[in-house]
Specification:
- The chain has about 230 residues and is mainly alpha-helical.
- The protein is about 70% helix and about 5% strand.
- The chain is built from eight helices and three strands, in the order βααααβααααβ.
- It has a three-stranded antiparallel β-sheet.
- Helix 1 runs antiparallel to helix 2, helix 2 runs antiparallel to helix 3 and helix 3 packs antiparallel against helix 7.
- The radius of gyration is 18 Å and the shape is globular.
- The N and C termini lie close together (about 5 Å).
Length: about 230
């Protein structure tokens, strides 16, 4: 039996690059491998922002065009750009053996696609069971039109995204055990970017027309999975 969880999918290149780095880690990473490892972590984080937030804005805007949605999407892309900048900044501070530990962390998390299929690599991530069960009720009510309380759906999205960030960003940061200056700097950057993301989504939620609510619910149900 699989407990309620978050299903986070990756682009195929993520598992390909991870497989390469796992093989390289067995004999020792080069400086170039280290850069590739950090670049991979960056793409995972940016993919998280894209899946959780940017794709939602694109879906809603396609059916209910609003200028503020386009502006929010542009801000999210700026957050991704800043993430790439800071991850590039931190690369020189990383010892190769710490990158090896993070590679191992992700290797144990990512399930590879079946050969010869169109499946994407994915990870099942933890989410509080109460949040998951209550969240699925909220989403089903929004999807059916039974509920018009979009704020609950938005807060669920934020909780789910924070759970993903904890496991895909903050836990790897702890594994790498940076010195106090780098650790506090990165921690502050993560908190700032999370706060900006939360603010954007809450603002958009208040501006959405009622008939956009099912689109929000459909998007969330892609990666909040029921117990099986």
């Amino acid at each position: 039996m699989t407990a309620p969880h978050l299903l986070f999918t990756f682009e195929t290149f993520v598992s390909d690059e991870l497989d390469y780095l796992v093989a390289q880690a067995k004999t020792g990473l080069t400086d170039e491998d280290k850069k590739r490892g950090v670049a991979l972590l960056t793409e995972v984080y940016c993919g998280l922002l894209d899946m959780c937030y940017a794709q939602l804005l694109e879906k809603v805007n396609a059916k209910h065009p609003v200028k503020s949605l386009e502006e929010a999407h542009a801000i999210l892309k700026e957050i991704e750009s800043k993430s790439r900048h800071y991850m590039s900044w931190v690369t020189p501070f990383l010892a190769k053996e710490k990158v090896v530990k993070v590679i191992g962390y992700f290797d144990g998390m990512v399930t590879r696609p079946t050969t010869g299929t169109d499946e994407k690599p994915y990870a099942r991530l933890r989410i509080d069971e109460k949040v998951a069960s209550e969240g699925l009720i909220i989403l089903k009510d929004l999807l059916s039109g039974k509920s018009q309380d979009i704020e609950k759906g938005i807060e669920l999205l934020i909780k789910a995204t924070d759970a993903v960030i904890e496991q895909l960003v903050e836990e790897p940061k702890r594994v790498m055990k940076f010195n106090i200056v780098v650790d506090k700097t990165l921690g502050g950057v993560i908190a700032l970017l999370k706060g900006i993301g939360h603010g954007i989504i809450r603002k958009i939620g208040r501006q959405l027309p009622d008939d956009a609510f099912p689109t929000v619910a459909e998007h969330l149900m892609i990666f909040i999975q029921e117990e099986k």
